[in-house]
Structure to design on (87 residues):
């Protein structure tokens, strides 16, 4: 099941090294700026790129995009869950 977390929770998890943040926007947006230590997987490339970039299917992963109106992160999170990513 896909869950949401707050910005504060995400910030603490990133600082503690407890989560992999995945930006799901286009590459040019990632190049302009992203969360610390985030990786880039455009939401349309999750099935192709996740196995290589996210080999641990039990690791904590947070997908994100630009704002609440953007659905990229939700789509990516659901795809990851369907692929067996459990956290």
């Amino acid at each position: 099941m896909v869950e949401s977390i707050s910005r504060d929770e995400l910030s603490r998890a990133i600082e503690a090294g407890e989560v992999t943040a995945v930006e799901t926007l286009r590459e040019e947006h990632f190049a302009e700026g992203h969360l610390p230590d985030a990786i880039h997987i455009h939401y349309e490339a999750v099935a192709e790129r996740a196995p290589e970039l996210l080999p641990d299917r039990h690791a904590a992963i947070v997908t994100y995009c630009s704002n609440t109106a953007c659905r990229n992160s939700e789509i990516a999170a659901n795809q990851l869950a369907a692929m067996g990513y459990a956290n």
User: Anything to note?
Assistant: DSSP finds four helices and three strands in the chain.
